[in-house]
Each structure stands twice: as C-alpha cells, then as structure tokens.
Design a protein that fits this description.
The protein is an alpha+beta fold and about 240 residues long. The protein contains four helices and 13 strands. The radius of gyration is 17 Å and the shape is globular. It comes from Colletotrichum graminicola (strain M1.001 / M2 / FGSC 10212) (Maize anthracnose fungus).
Length: about 240
C-alpha cells in the first residue's frame, strides 16, 4: 500500500529504464558511477496539479521532479508535507541500518562530493513515498538524488529486478557512507567536508555517494512511449 504524499499530490515511485540509443545517450558516458555498469533513469508518477485527476510522468532525480512540479504549480512545496508522511517503525528502520553493519563500506573510490549536499539529498529522499524498484543487474544503477554535483546512486547487483520496502533503505546506505567515509576538507567544496564511498547491503545491492556529477543532466522529462520497464542498458 502506498501512502499519498498529500491529498492533492499522491506520489508513486516507478523505476524505468530508457533505451540508451532511443534517448540519444550512452549508458556509460551518461555518468554511471562504475564504468561498464548499466544505468536506469527513475520515473515518477504524480497527480496532475490541475486537479483533473490525471497522472503526470516525470523522469530524473527527486530534485528534478520537485522543480518540474513547481513549474506547473509554483505553490507546490514538498517540505510542507514532511509531517504528513508516515515513516517506518523504529524496529524496521533499525533493521535497514543493521543490514549495512556487517558488510564492507568502501571509501575514496570516487570523485569527492560535497558532504552537505549529500546530507541534503538524504533529507530529500526521506520525504518521498513509494517503493523504489530497480531492474536486473548486476551493476544496474540509477541516480536518485543530485545536489551541487554530488549524486546518490542505487545499484542492483542481483540478476533479478528488485523492489525495496521504502526509500528509507537507500537513505540508510547513504548515511552509512557519510558515517564511515570521512574525506578531507576541500577548498573546492567551500566550508563543507567532502565525501565519497559505496555501502553494500547484505541483499546484494549497494548505495554510492560521489562527486563530479552533472546535476543538470540527471534525466529528461519525456513521455512514457520511449520507456521500457526493467530493461538493462549497457555500454557498447
């Protein structure tokens, strides 16, 4: 059961993969966090702000979706809905977090990102309802957040598609990276500390936090005609 973000804007998260050539992108050059990995672009289905009851399909990161909704209705503010969102019980949240405790977390493998931006991306994801879904792997990755050139990626290494209980599980992986990977201060990142790393979940998926991402190229808002569910996109 998916709980609505608010009465006027029910939000469901669907993951789709666009055929790379159909969209004019190469999966590797589009910025997959690990060379050779597949890449999917998240698709979000939201109620139209015109009150007609129809649904609007948008693609990209959580930040892009909020920006697009504000373009259609300037008063749209996801932050105002935070108190209306049901969060998982404490026991379940602890279970998510513990799933990362006994698995290695690798640090400093990627371009360093902005620590504050990663934290803000985590806060954005905490506000999202729905069950994240990912196509079959191994190495099928999608960027779910991007701020200040710092991306949060969710990668599936299983050979079958995957659906998580909530975005809380991805959040816990990103928080694990922030906790374990203490990068050095960098003049390029202002006053913030830098961060980069990869947290592995016991169920064969992982979360990557890295810098060097182009947040202006996280996704393209196109109609669903070019989309196909759970098709793995690979580089040549």
């Amino acid at each position: 059961m998916h709980l609505p973000l608010c009465a006027a804007f029910p939000l469901t998260f669907l993951v789709t993969v666009a055929q790379a050539r159909a969209l004019g992108h190469d999966a590797t050059s589009s910025g997959a966090p690990i060379p050779g990995n597949g890449m999917f672009i998240p698709r979000w289905e939201m109620a139209s702000p015109d009150g007609s009851g129809s649904m609007v399909n948008l693609r990209g990161t959580v930040q892009e979706v909020v920006k697009a909704m504000r373009g259609m209705r300037p008063s749209f503010d996801i932050d105002e809905q935070l108190d209306k969102i049901a969060t998982p019980a404490v026991g379940r949240r602890n279970a998510y977090s513990n799933a990362f405790d006994n698995i290695n977390t690798l640090c400093h493998l990627f371009t360093a990102g902005n620590r504050t931006a990663a934290y803000e991306g985590i806060e954005d994801l905490k506000k999202v309802q729905g069950r994240p879904m990912n196509g079959a792997g191994p190495g099928n990755c999608g960027r779910v957040s991007c701020r200040k050139n710092t991306g949060i990626w969710w990668c599936n290494d299983a050979q079958s598609s995957r659906e998580l209980a909530s975005f809380g599980e991805i959040v816990d992986g990103a928080q694990r990276v922030l906790k374990k990977c203490q990068d050095k201060p960098s003049a390029d990142q202002g006053d913030g500390m830098t961060v980069s790393g990869q947290a592995f979940h016991m169920d064969n998926w992982n979360v990557i936090v890295r810098g060097g991402d182009n947040c202006d190229d996280a996704g393209v808002n196109l109609g669903g005609g070019l989309l196909g569910r759970f098709v793995r996109v690979t580089g040549d």
